[in-house]
Amino acid sequence: MRRIPATTWKLITQTVGTCLRYRVTGLAAEGAFFAILSLPPLIFGLAGSIGFIASRYFEVETIEDIKIQIADLAARALTDDSVKTVIVPTLNQVLNGGRPDVISIGFVLALWSGSRALNVFVDTITIMYGMGGKRGIVRTRALSFSLYCAALVIGVIVLPLVLAGPDAVEALLPHRLDFLNQLYWPVVTILSAGFLNTLYHLSVPVRTPWVSDLPGSFLALSIWILGSFVLRWILQSTVGGTSIYGPLAAPIAVLMWLYMTAIAVLIGAALNAVVDRLWPHKARREAAEPVMKAEPDPHHDDEPLTPGELRPEVKLARTVEAMSPGSPVDPPGHAVGYPSNDAPEKELSIPEKPAVEKPPAGKPTPAVAKPAARAPRAEKPAEAKAEPAPVGPAEEPPARADADKVVQANRTESTPS
């Protein structure tokens, strides 16, 4: 770890921490679920849309190449019998002039489900930048639906070119420009990174330069390419024969691929958020500050706070700080309503006793003057105690003695002789 630069190590650790904090794996599973839910009607809707364009602007040979490419891709996940009896006949019906009936209610539902998957990405990217709730639920949903529809339109135009492959590009180019055919896949990779970077750029409520989101785009694309090769190798080595999942093997493989794609996209967004935190952009920082002051974290169940209002735990922390002498009530850089993530936590410290300096070795210990002995206290003279009077028979009062004599005399007189 010592050989890794401090900045690179900080980027790695904070990116991993951001992914763990915002549950990237769980949100990726949610996005993959909605994506696979919308996949079947979406494929038929795209095929029906491509049929209108391919029949008008492409030759018959190009359409046949598109069918072959789609069949080859389907054969990697499905059985040969399923491809011959289901996939190929469907493509023949859809791509030959287009099928308007497949662009129906199922296609509209696919648009809604697919935009729900994209909404997970947009919402998570916004939260990673500390701007959760700034755009609002309705605007976020509308943005997700608009981006998804725009991506479908671009896909309808670009997908035939990608499926046709370099052969179609080579047929369109003159012989002296054949060397450009070698740039086919690099150009496709760069365009894919550009589309992904546009997603990062539009997901954040505050716009920054488009180039500032490129690190996350290239990281996500690298993870996606590497993960696709690894996933394909694992599936080929473990599901080469009869699978324990039976007919669910192909859908599970597609779900795993979509899950890996979603994780790659969210990891790239986490890297961009960390880069923005370490080297903040002025416009984005100014826009995020009032949100951090007034709005709660979407992952907490607290009620919304008004501007200037403090959360209960912040009030308690500031009260404790105010009671301790010499401690500031508002530390610098502390956001109103929320404790600062960058401010270090204070620890209670116990004052230590001053260390006694020891004399260096070889020198005699200096004599310490002893305090003078105190003079003995003067004793007070003993006070003479009064001796108690001797206890004798108590004298009876005279009135009682006379009464006893009278009673005794009466008894003597009454006694018979």
TrEMBL record:
Region of interest called Disordered, as start-end residue ranges on this chain: 289-309, 322-417
Domain of life: Bacteria
Protein keywords: Cell membrane, Membrane, Transmembrane, Transmembrane helix
GO cellular component terms, semicolon-separated: plasma membrane
Pfam families: Virul_fac_BrkB
Name of the protein: Membrane protein
Membrane topology: Multi-pass membrane protein
Annotated TM spans: 31-54, 102-122, 142-163, 183-202, 214-235, 255-275
PANTHER family reported in the protein's UniProt record: INNER MEMBRANE PROTEIN YHJD, UPF0761 MEMBRANE PROTEIN YIHY
Predominant place of localization: membrane
Cell compartments where the protein resides: Cell membrane
Source species of the chain: Kribbella italica
Comp. bias (Basic and acidic residues): 289-303, 343-356, 376-386
Bias-annotated ranges (Low complexity): 364-375
